[in-house]
Amino acid sequence: MAHRTPIESGAPDPKPFMHPTLLKNYGNWKYHDRPRPGVLHHVSHSGDEVWTVRAGTQRQMDVYTIRKLCDIADTYADGHVRFTIRSNIEFMVADPNKVAPLISALQESGFPVGGTGNSVSMIAHTQGWLHCDIPGTDASGAVKALMDELHEEFIREEMPNRVHLSTSCCEINCGGQADIAIIVQHTKPPKINHDLVANVCERPAVVARCPVAAIRPALVNGKPSLEVDEKKCICCGACYPPCPPMQINDPEHSKLAIWVGGKNSNARGKPTFMKMVASGLPNNPPRWPEVSEIVKRILHVYKNDARSWERLSDWIERIGWPRFFEKCDLPFTKYLIDDWRGSRANLNASTHIRF
Ligand code: SF4
Ligand code: SF4
């Protein structure tokens, strides 16, 4: 049989685009340090050194902004850039004399330099209105509003440990674990437009999609449609993407919730899942002041109360959830943190889905 080369669709090989000093010393680094917030300094066993300057971007950028960043790279750096997973841009230079002019050029163009070490790094956020079809809020707008207020924490490294924030514009898809996450929270079951279901939705696929088996086929006004058992529905929004006539986004009932204590890495402690600590916050563009106020409050208490190197989840683990709610002056309700002890009763809602 003829040999077939596998089709790779993962991350492309970074080496063709790598800064020459990084390429030359690939896998041969001796140590690294941070001479100031926003600057990493790597030293190789060969004696080569490279400085990386990190700046915040708004992630969803127009072509003029990208050109501006590329011009800065060509003029002040060595023409190489890379993006971090939190949408920061990094410029690498092999000459220490280029670091200060590069920082000045970035700051003069409105790009804050920071996001390294124990800072509040740029918020990882989901695509929202730009290229997704199901968002209930504008995640990138909430990021802009919040980072305007957290600018000082981005350019300094004064937190007990690094702080990763995220925003998600639906409850079910992209996002991930973060120290503090802002996530859409639907509070009412979907409203069904029965005239459209038969034309638009593949009904068995929609029925199968519901995690608690709350959707059934139904005949409404003589047309094939669907119905929702609202007592079972957990308002997750998973039926809306495959069946847009099951509209769940609502200007009043789609709220925002804040979750805390998530962590992907296993440095110093195991990865952790975040838990909801504030719910039903208004989805209030363009500045989302209610959300910003609570996020800043949690950050402030964490900054003052945590011990050095405690991540937010470590801090809560040490002081306990009741103290967390007290210190952050957040009301504790039955809708908040779930330890999943009751999940068998909560989730075993049908005979065909058993947990
Ligand atoms: S979080 Fe949901 S709505 Fe937002 S971009 Fe991802 S899939 Fe789309
Ligand atoms: S919102 Fe979620 S729980 Fe409710 S019917 Fe749709 S898929 Fe099921």
Alpha-carbon distance between the two ends: 44 Å
CATH topological fold name of the largest domain: Sulfite Reductase Hemoprotein, domain 1
Which kinds of small molecule does this entry bind, naming each only once? iron/sulfur cluster
Number of helices: 11
Uncertain runs are none
Extended strand count: 14
CATH superfamily of the largest domain: Sulfite Reductase Hemoprotein, domain 1
Give the CATH level 1 class of the largest domain. Answer: Alpha Beta
Rg computed from alpha carbons, rounded to a whole number of angstroms: 24 Å
What is the domain total for the residues? Answer: 3
The CATH architecture of the largest domain would be 2-Layer Sandwich
Cofactor: siroheme; [4Fe-4S] cluster
GO molecular function: 4 iron, 4 sulfur cluster binding; dissimilatory sulfite reductase (NADH) activity; electron transfer activity; heme binding; metal ion binding; sulfite reductase (ferredoxin) activity; sulfite reductase activity
Organism: Rubrivivax albus
Pfam family, one: NIR_SIR
